[in-house]
Amino acid sequence: MAAFDLGLTHSREYFPVNVNWPAAHIHMLPVELLQQVFLLVVNDVPDCPGVFSYGDTTISANVGSPPLVFTRVCRFWRVVAHSTTAVWSRMQVTLPGRIEPLTPFLPSFLQSWLARSGDQPLTLRIVSGELPVRTTRRCTRQSCHEPSRADSQLLGILLSESKRWGTVALVSADGWNRDFDTPQLRSLQCCWSELSSFNAPNLTHLHITYRWSLTMRFRHTPTCDNVRHLWVENASARIIRSTFLMFPRMESIKVDQIRSDIGHPHDSTTHSCLESITFPIPSDPFQQREVLKIFGELRLPMLRKLTFVADPEESEVFCIVAALETASCDVQVINFQTTIPLSEVDVDVIEPLFSVAREVSVHGEMLCRPVRQ
Fold first, then answer.
1. Cis geometry, peptide bond prior to residue 49 (ω within 30 degrees of 0)
2. Could you report the per-residue pLDDT of 283-337, keeping only the tens digit for each?
3. Rounded Cα gap, residues 121 and 109, in angstroms
4. In angstroms, rounded to a whole number, what is the distance separating the alpha carbons of residues 258 and 50?
5. What CA–CA distance (Å, rounded) separates 193 from 213?
6. Which residues contact 311 (CB under 8 A, 6 or more apart)?
7. β-pair type (331-337, 365-366)
8. 170 pairs with which residues across the strands?
9. Which of 45, 175, 274, 355 is the most buried (most CB within 10 A)?
10. Measured between alpha carbons, how far is 64 from 43 in angstroms, rounded to an integer?
């Protein structure tokens, strides 16, 4: 430090240089804590982190979002991110839909991402048709239900890891005509037509998207055997009754929208495992007939809770009572999901529900049965 003896050491304008400044606090975090920070960020990304980034007509690696962005901060973060396999186990792969094959970099990039996830079960969201399809003679002859060459490249890579699929959502995947061997799969989102493509003996949570076909015929597959929780975006009474036969161990079913159907439900049906049902009650009396058809001659010995997405008004209450009187069940609780505050619920209107259930609640808050003098 002799250079600082030239009259500068005692100057008020200069101070000795300390070459041993402490590192930034973020670099002093224990590796385990930094890994938890990475996981919190990745798990907070809606729909899973995207592997690819899309422009109007281009596809590239998604370097600006987690987890890849972690590797661009510094060497220490890059090493920690690469060694944290769980950070790479959640991904959204958006298929381009283009006829032309991809450049070698993009399939290799997807393979590298999967390799960094180690042996972790994969949480995977596959979305199709991101880029506009260029119309060519060859393209026009291709079936609209057949994956493009670019899509097939990426699907082939994902299928090579199908034995690690744990949670999967297929978005706009109808017509891929692929078989999926997924022994670890626990949760699946797909359309009805894709369900039979899965060999998933451990599947417990199933979310069905898209509208059904009026000519659709359901068939039981081994994948259905262990499904415990079913969520269907829209269905008719016929389809809902069909699920009671398709999923013998189903414990809960949720339907977002009930639609009319020209078909007729199965006759007397027994389901010995179903404990919870969540349905909307249509305000239209004609649509309410579908609710009645759901419960007609239905035996549900384990049913304990019914949740209705509806206002507790006279028409809805009448529909519920009429439906449950045609079924054989011992309902403990009828719960309403409604925009009406609890204080504004007319207890005289909901009183008939106590003839078919022991308790009635609004958003989980119990209503007292009115006392008659």
1. no
2. 888 888 888 889 988 999 999 999 999 999 999 999 999 999 999 999 999 999 9
3. 19
4. 33
5. 10
6. 336, 338, 339, 340
7. unpaired
8. 126
9. 274
10. 16
Burial of 144 (0-12, 13-18, 19+ CB in 10 A): exposed
Cβ atoms < 10 Å from Cβ of 135: 9
Beta bridge partners of 191: 209
How long, in residues, is the chain? 373
pLDDT in tens, 119-161: 999 999 998 765 544 444 444 434 445 667 888 889 999 999 9
Distance CA 125, CA 132 (A): 20
User: Which residues, other chains included, contact 340 with Cβ-Cβ below 8 Å and sequence gap of 6+?
Assistant: 311, 312, 362
Q: Give the residue among 66, 32, 63 at the shortest CA–CA distance from 48.
A: 66
The token duo for 33 is 């804590």
Structural contact between residues 309 and 280, judged by C-beta atoms closer than 8 angstroms: yes
CB atoms within 10 A of CB 5: 9
Residue 135: C-alpha distances to residues 99, 138, 139, 142, 175 (Å):
9, 8, 6, 11, 20
